[in-house]
């Protein structure tokens, strides 16, 4: 072997006396802190060794000193650097800034006949992107039409006729009025984007080549705004019939004084009026997605960039099959009883009783339908699922929010040891990140693959943790981030969500097995501080502005 082939030993540069003294000071602080909490710590001393570049095993990944060492003042670990500006948040953690999406500006224009699921897709997409903290708004032309008609009726006392003839292409006056509504809606959307929005959804039929070209021409005049089209095509008679039935039975003001049969006939005639002039997207220069039968077939054309690709991938995973999604926290754990956060403790005696009772509750509810159980990798969720007679899948992404150096502490200990950070977390719980751990915002990001798979699947039971289920629950109910960390997800309770066209129905089943209450109220929110559980699956028929 030549000298060139001989492996060379690399020696880390020796630490200076000043550096070693500072590290020893850190270790003394760590030992004092551990003694304060009654915790043992390895006896470790650093010396002037040639091998100082290799840390003792206790400081390695997963070593017992890693988290304790990280508690120490940051400046003690940067002694060889120039002076560092003080941190804005002192202590164990900090606040995570919202991602900067200011450059993301998209007009997403829906295309499709009535009763083809356009509003369903637009509302699902809005909920998903808002959960990821994009600023998204749906501009529904039908809602704008009804709102303006209602306003005119209130002023004049005369109600406009918006039955099927109003939607005929041969009705020149009505066609002109509908074109103006679409134009006004687009103008409001563009103005909203210019004021800071990210994705504006133009929910209309946009059913002809000329209408779509008008949108392209108008958006092209705005710097930094792009347009993509989303066409919802459907030739499944069952889906169309279900959408028609939903339309005529859900309180649409267009059919206020009609019987259900009359409304059905009129709406089917409206569809035929649109079919007479409908032109599917064939324009080769457009950026578009075409979704057939809500997910059975997807066509993409000129989809570029991160956000457009993210939108496309999400929409490709949707389906309309009836299903239920069950959420349950693990049974009560030993750490729950002791008031400790995090950890990987086993179930308590009451938690085991819940695990034994859970199979009967689930099978009574689901019957013979197939079901898959998802758990985290932590002991308490796996124990809770052990007796369930269904296929099981373990997700690392479903592990509880990582409390970092606070893992295994009580809230009282955290408040005593780190009062500034305890206050900061109470002030902004969604954005607060534990030192060496996570924030709720971090958890939302790591749960995105779980959401994608949930949208693909049918009946799922997730046995998870409080923070994880809060994040998933907020997605399905379109709850704001500020409220997310305070959603009440009690132990020994099963939450059943049934997705509908415009939201989720919810049922809760609480087993009569006692458990501690781990819910921490929102500061200054009264004696309880839990968000009330009331969610609407009704469609909105009037615009909130315009």
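Sequence proposed for the structure above (546 residues):
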């Amino acid at each position: 072997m030549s000298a060139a082939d001989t492996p060379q030993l690399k020696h880390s540069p020796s630490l200076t006396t000043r550096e070693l003294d500072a590290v020893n000071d850190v270790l003394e602080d760590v030992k004092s802190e551990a003694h304060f909490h009654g915790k043992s710590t390895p006896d470790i001393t650093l010396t002037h060794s040639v091998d100082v570049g290799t840390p003792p095993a206790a400081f390695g990944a997963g070593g017992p000193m890693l988290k304790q060492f990280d508690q120490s003042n940051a400046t003690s670990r940067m002694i060889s650097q120039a002076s560092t500006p003080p941190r804005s948040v002192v202590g164990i953690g900090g606040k995570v800034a919202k991602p900067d999406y200011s450059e993301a500006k998209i007009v997403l224009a829906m295309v499709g006949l009535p009763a083809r699921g356009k509003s369903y897709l637009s509302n699902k997409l809005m909920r998903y992107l808002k959960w990821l903290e994009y600023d998204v708004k749906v501009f529904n032309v039908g809602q704008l039409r009804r709102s303006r008609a209602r306003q005119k009726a209130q002023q004049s006392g005369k109600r406009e006729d918006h039955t099927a003839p109003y939607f005929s292409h041969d009705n020149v006056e009505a066609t002109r009025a509908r074109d103006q509504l679409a134009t006004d809606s687009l103008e409001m959307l563009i103005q909203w984007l210019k004021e800071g929005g990210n994705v504006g959804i133009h929910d209309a039929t946009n059913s002809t080549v000329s209408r779509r070209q008008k949108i392209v021409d108008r958006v092209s005049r705005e710097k930094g705004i792009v347009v993509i089209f989303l066409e919802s095509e459907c030739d499944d008679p069952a889906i169309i019939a279900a959408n028609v039935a939903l339309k005529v039975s859900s309180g649409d003001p267009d059919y206020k004084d009609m019987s259900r049969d009359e409304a059905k006939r009129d709406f089917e005639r409206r569809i035929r009026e649109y079919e007479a002039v409908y032109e599917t997207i064939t324009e080769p220069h457009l950026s578009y997605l075409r979704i057939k039968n809500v997910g059975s077939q997807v066509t993409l054309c000129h989809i570029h960039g991160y956000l457009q690709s993210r939108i496309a991938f999400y929409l490709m995973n949707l389906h309309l099959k009836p299903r239920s999604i069950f959420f349950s926290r693990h049974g009560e754990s030993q750490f729950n009883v002791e008031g400790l956060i995090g950890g990987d403790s086993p179930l308590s005696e009451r938690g085991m009783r819940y695990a034994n009772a859970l199979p009967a509750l689930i099978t009574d509810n689901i019957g013979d339908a197939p079901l898959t159980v998802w758990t985290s990798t932590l002991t308490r969720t796996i124990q809770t699922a052990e007796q369930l007679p269904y296929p099981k899948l373990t997700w690392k992404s479903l592990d509880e929010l990582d409390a970092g150096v606070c893992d295994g502490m009580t809230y009282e200990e955290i408040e005593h040891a780190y009062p500034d950070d305890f206050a900061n977390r109470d002030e902004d719980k969604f954005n607060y990140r534990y030192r060496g751990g996570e924030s709720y915002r971090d958890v939302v990001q790591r749960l995105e693959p779980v959401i994608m798979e949930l949208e693909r699947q049918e009946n799922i039971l997730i046995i998870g943790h409080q923070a994880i289920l809060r994040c998933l629950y907020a997605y399905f109910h379109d709850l704001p981030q500020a409220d997310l960390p305070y959603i009440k997800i009690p132990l020994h309770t099963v939450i059943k969500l049934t997705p509908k066209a415009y939201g989720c129905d919810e049922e809760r089943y609480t087993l009569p097995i006692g458990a501690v209450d781990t819910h921490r109220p929102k500061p200054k929110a009264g004696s309880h501080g839990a968000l009330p559980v009331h969610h609407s699956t009704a469609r909105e028929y009037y615009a909130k502005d315009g």
